[in-house]
Amino acid sequence: MKRDFLTLADRTEAEYRALFDRAHALKASRKRKEVVTTLAGRHLVLVFEKASTRTHLSFEAAMYQLGGTVTTITAGTSQIGRGETIEDTARVISSYADCIMFRTFGDERLNALAKASSVPVINGLSEGGHPVQVLTDLFTVEERLGSVKGKTVAFVGDCASNMGRSFVEATLFFGFDLRLGCPEGYRPAASLLAEAGSRVHVTADASEAVKGADVVVTDVWTSMGQEAESAKRKKDLHEYQVNEALMAKAKPGAIVLHCLPAHRGEEITDGVIDGAQSAVWDEAENRMHVQKALLEQLILG
Ligand code: CP
Ligand code: NVA
C-alpha cells in the first residue's frame, strides 16, 4: 500500500526522527563528496501548476544525486493546461514513475491526484500547506540549535498562509511551542488551531509573539495566487515586518527562517535576512538533504 506525504500528519514522530537522522547523514556524505545511489533505477515526476525555484531544483538535485532520474512538467507545457483531468494525468504518470511531487492551488486537486495515483505523492506546496518546507525548517532548527523539542517558534505576518498552517500542524509532532503574531483575518482556521491546542498561542502583537523566542519565522505577505490582494495585504500587515527592532525582542541567539522567495523590505528587512541571525541559506540548502531522506522513505518503504 503506497503512502503519500500530503500533510505533516502523514508520518509518525518515529518516522520523522529516522528521516532527520538520515538527512543529517546524507548531508554529511554530500559534504565528503561521497556518491550515494540508493534510488538508482527509480524515477520521479515533478508537476508544477505554480512557479518554483527551490522546490524544482532541490527535488531534481536530490533525485539525480541518489542515482535516480526526474522529469518535470508544468501546466502550461503539458496537456494539463489544455484540460486533461488530474486523475487521468495521475494514472499515466503512475505508470512511468515511482513517486510524484505536485505543486498546485487547492487541496482538492492535490487529493484527487493522490487518490488516482498508484505511487506515493508529495505535496510540493498547496493552499493548505507546505509540508516539505516546514519539515526542512525544523531540521534546520535542530542543526542550528541542537533540538526542536521545547523551543519557542514565533511565526509573524500572514499566519493563514500555507507555511503558517503547516507550522501549526507541526506542533503536534515536534514538541515545540508556536506563537503566531498576526492581525485578525490572517489567522489559520479556528478548527486547525483547536486541533493543535495549547501549544499554539495567537496574538495580534508582533512583539509579544517574538519575545524570548528561539526561532523567528516569516513568509511573504502575498502568496502565489493572491496577487490581486497585494495592496490590501501590505497595508494590513505592515506592522508585522521582521526587522532589527523586532529581532531585538527574541532570545540573543535566536535564528531567523524564511522559506524564500523573500519580498525584501516588506515582510523582512535586508539587515535581518543578510544578518548574523539568518539561517535562510542553510534552510534553502537543506531542502535537498531532507527531501533525499523523504524520497528514500517513500520509494523504498
Ligand atoms: N520555498 C520554496 O518552496 O521556494 P520555491 O517557490 O522557489 O520552490
Ligand atoms: N506562501 C508562499 C510560499 C512560497 C514558497 C506562497 O504560497 O507563495
Q: Approximately how much beta-strand content do the residues carry?
A: 5-15%
Radius of gyration: 19 Å
Structure ligands: phosphoric acid mono(formamide)ester, norvaline
- Please write the string of helix (H) and strand (E) elements: HEHEHEHEHEHEHEHEHHEHH
Q: Which stretches of 5+ consecutive residues score pLDDT under 50?
A: none
**Would you tell me the overall average pLDDT?**
98
Shape: globular
Report the span from N to C terminus. 10 Å
How would a crystallographer describe the biggest sheet?
5 strands, parallel
Could you describe the 3D structure shown?
The chain has helices spanning 13-31, 54-65, 86-94, 107-116, 131-145, 162-174, 190-196, 206-210, 230-237, 244-247, 270-273, 280-300; strands spanning 43-48, 69-74, 99-103, 121-123, 152-156, 177-181, 200-203, 215-218, 255-258. By secondary structure, the chain is an alpha/beta fold. β5 (152-156), α6 (162-174) and β6 (177-181) form a beta-alpha-beta unit. The N and C termini lie close together (10 Å). The model has no long low-confidence stretch (mean pLDDT 98). It binds phosphoric acid mono(formamide)ester (CP) and norvaline. Phosphoric acid mono(formamide)ester is lined by residues 52-55, 125, 133, 259-261.
